[in-house]
Amino acid sequence: MEQLVILSKLEQEYLLHAIEAAIPLRDARQFRLWTQGPLQALLPHQVMVCLQFGEHDELRHIECAHSMVLDAGVHNRLANRDDGLALRLARHCGGEAEPALAPFLGELRELGMENLLIRGTERLPGGATFFVLFGLPHRPRPRHAYFLELLLPYLHMGLQRVGGSQARTRAAALARPVSAREAEILHWVREGKSNEEIGLILGISGLTVKNHLQRLYRLLGVSNRAHAIARGMALQLFDRPTQMLARAA
After folding, report:
1. Angle, vertex CA 42, rays to CA 115 and CA 71, nearest 5
2. How does DSSP classify residue 59?
3. In this structure, are 158 and 214 located in the same domain?
4. Does residue 130 carry a pLDDT above 80?
5. For 115, 178, 216, 231, which has the most beta carbons within 10 A of its beta carbon?
């Protein structure tokens, strides 16, 4: 049976203030100020790592906000995009409210971050988000998990806006927009199709596909297919609807 959580008057005020302050969040600066202000007042912590995933569970965006001077090595161990602790926790725990953290306890103790809160959304259209609050002053109680649960929709919306805003900024910095044909070809590259297979799908030659890819590489500043896919994910190019000119076999 779940424990009933009754909020004090002060906690109710902090919660309402955190919700009201979260509604207008639009960029990374506003989001970080919110995490270190209204959210910090309700859920004191040293470091919060926020992860935004795409529809195929690829990591799109990561934010790390902290209320302390954070050593670069510790920052990297917590928030590295490839194998940081927050990412590994997200892969391991998903959206579970009470995840099993036994595999990570040694590392958490070593970092002095064993008091933590974790919460993630379920799979949603456009992707999921996951949040880790490291370095709480005391072992979290059910009421702290309840606060985070109540604020999860606002954390999710805020991070989605931040990730989308930064992706649009990066896309605007390109020398020109990615064409519909280039986006379509990149889609099939991500699906693992060869140039010849893409040509058959789109009704063009493999050489034409290769030429499109070379122009796309130069535009994105990459040198191979894997880097182009990663850059496309960062720019959210795969979110755009593509008009397929032929059915995939």
Report:
1. 50
2. E
3. no
4. yes
5. 216
Give me the sign of the Cα torsion angle 154, 157, 163, 169.
Answer: negative
Local structure of residue 103 (DSSP, 8 states): G
Mark out the alpha helices in 80-137 (DSSP H runs).
85-93, 105-111
pLDDT at residue 166, as a whole number: 66
Say if 1 falls within a structural domain. no
Tell me: do 135 and 162 sit in the same domain: yes
Please, are residues 54 and 60 in contact by the beta-carbon 8 Å criterion? Answer: yes
pLDDT for the residue 98: 65
The SS3 call for residue 134 is strand
How far apart are the C-alpha atoms of 158 and 70, rounded to whole Å?
A: 23
What is the reported pTM?
0.70
Any domain includes 249:
no
Instruction: Report if residue 119 sits inside a domain.
Output: yes
Q: Which residue has the higher pLDDT, 115 or 54?
A: 115
- Residue 247 counted as domain residue: no
C-alpha to C-alpha distance for 46 and 193, rounded to whole angstroms:
45
- The CA–CA distances, whole Å, from 159 to 116, 177, 201, 205 equal 20, 25, 36, 41
Q: Token pair of 47, please?
A: 């470091």
Q: What is the pLDDT of residue 1?
A: 39
Last residue of a domain, one of 116, 141, 172: 172
Task: Give the structural domain span for 235.
Answer: 180-239
Q: Higher pLDDT residue, 60 or 42?
A: 42
Q: What is the pLDDT of residue 247?
A: 38
Amino acid 126 reads G
Average pLDDT taken over every residue of the chain:
86
Report the C-alpha gap between 184 and 199 in whole angstroms.
11
CATH number at residue 65: 3.30.450.80
- My answer on whether 38 and 68 are in the same domain is yes
